[in-house]
Write a structure and sequence with these properties.
Elements: E1 5-11, H1 34-47, E2 55-58, H2 62-71, E3 78-79, H3 96-102, H4 104-112, H5 125-141, E4 146-152, H6 154-165, E5 182-188, E6 191-199
Parallel strand pairs: 1-4, 2-3, 2-4
Antiparallel strand pairs: 1-5, 5-6
């Protein structure tokens, strides 16, 4: 086991989405597509022999569980449901253009106050952060040392990163979080230090 405590926050691989993929799919439980599975397997292969994870957590959603199984097949994941993706309510499964037309007023309001405006029946980013951060704190406080891999979702991970590293929740789309992208953090002087942002094996090329 590693002497330090290192946290690896990984976004799941690309899921199998209907149509052209331009839909809202927060908590809709899609599995990985073939290309996504191959990418997750590539990450696992690259890390094999370089980093051994000691603990594995997922959101419990299919795309996160499948990604974790390909990256760290030697570990049984623990599910932390509070790390599930943002709930998009009535927007779930609808296309971007459809939402823009059907929910014009709330869509425009969310464009102005992104972090605090929720889709009908869904969550705002502030509400998302209210469940993800306590879950993340519980995980990292449970281990004195070791490499901790957490496989979750773009918005969920962003809400945690914004809390710990001083990002504005409204700026999510200015900071890329690719499928299979990994943020690496270490504890230092009672805080978290961001060591890598959105890392992937392709950056080695």
């Amino acid at each position: 086991m590693a002497e330090k405590k290192r946290i690896f926050l990984m976004r799941h691989a690309r899921p199998e989405l209907p149509g052209d993929g331009r839909i809202y799919y927060g908590q809709t439980d899609y599995p990985l597509c073939a290309a996504g599975a191959a990418a997750a397997k590539e990450v696992g292969s690259y890390l094999s022999g370089r980093i051994k994870f000691d603990y594995l957590y997922t959101s419990g959603m299919t795309r996160a569980v499948q990604t974790a199984a390909l990256v760290a097949p030697y570990l049984e994941p623990a599910a932390e449901r509070s790390l599930r993706e943002i709930n998009l309510g009535e927007w779930e499964g609808k296309g971007y253009d459809e939402v823009r037309e059907e929910f014009k007023e709330i869509y425009e309001a969310r464009g102005v106050k992104f972090a605090e405006t929720a889709p009908p029946g869904g969550e705002s980013f502030f509400e998302l952060q209210g469940r993800t951060v306590p879950a993340f704190k519980k995980i990292i406080s449970s281990h004195e040392s070791g490499n901790i891999l957490i496989v979750a979702h773009g918005a969920a991970i962003w809400s945690i990163a914004a809390y710990y590293f001083g990002f504005d929740l409204n700026d999510m789309f200015f900071f890329p979080q690719d499928y299979c992208g990994i943020h690496v953090a270490e504890e230092a002087c009672g805080r978290l230090r961001l060591c890598r942002y959105n890392w992937s094996p392709s950056l080695q090329l």
